[in-house]
Write a structure and sequence with these properties.
Radius of gyration: 18 Å
Structural class: alpha/beta
Order of helices and strands: EHHEEEHEHHEEH
CATH architecture: 3-Layer(aba) Sandwich
CATH topology: Rossmann fold
Helix content: 25-40%
CATH class: Alpha Beta
Number of strands: 7
Number of helices: 6
Strand order of the largest sheet: 2-1-3-5-7
């Protein structure tokens, strides 16, 4: 059994930019894998979630699958981190909250530009949309938030190393941005 902290990540409704920023820590990723074991993430393409010390979630909660994944991550983790604007406040996906689900589906599948065979999909394999996109703290308890859209690789590095070392998390001014 390893002494490393066990970390899992997931992307819900968002652009995957936060995971790209995680990769933007570049060669420090090699240092990170000396400190943590990635149990589930795009880095290792594992789909199930086992008990972990830290779960990092990006993206808002937009459909029933997002709710299920998020709740399972919460059950399996000691610390849950909301990373990026979508996880923290719904981000760009929450722009649909100004419209009904019916309006969104009709615009996408019936009236949208380039739609050839107008039909709203109805398949049990497709998760049902929620009435609105929620930030993850509206669904589960969150211990930490890391703002940004996306946060920079440097901000992620600072956050992870200070969390892993048990230090208070403090960012230099140039690492926090909201654009």
């Amino acid at each position: 059994m390893s002494d490393k902290l066990r970390v899992a990540t997931a992307s819900l409704a968002g652009c995957f930019g936060c995971h790209m920023s995680l990769l933007d820590i570049d060669e420090r990723l090699l240092e990170l894998i000396m400190l943590v074991e990635f149990e589930r993430s795009p880095i290792n393409d594992i789909k199930q979630i086992e008990p972990v010390d830290v779960a990092i979630i990006e993206g808002g909660v937009a459909n029933t699958d997002n709710v299920e994944v998020l709740r399972e991550f919460r059950r399996q983790s000691n610390i849950l981190v909301a990373i990026g604007a979508c996880a923290i406040n719904g981000g760009i996906p929450a722009m649909r909250n100004h419209f009904s689900v019916k309006e969104c589906l009709e615009e996408s599948y019936i009236n949208g530009i380039g739609v050839l065979n107008p039909m709203i999909p109805n398949d049990p394999e497709i998760p049902l949309l929620l009435n609105k996109v929620h930030p993850i703290h509206e669904v589960v308890k969150v211990e930490y938030v890391l703002p940004g859209c996306p946060p920079s690789g440097d901000a992620i590095w600072t956050f992870l190393t200070e969390l892993l070392e048990g230090r208070p998390i403090h960012f230099p001014y140039n690492e926090i941005h909201y654009d």
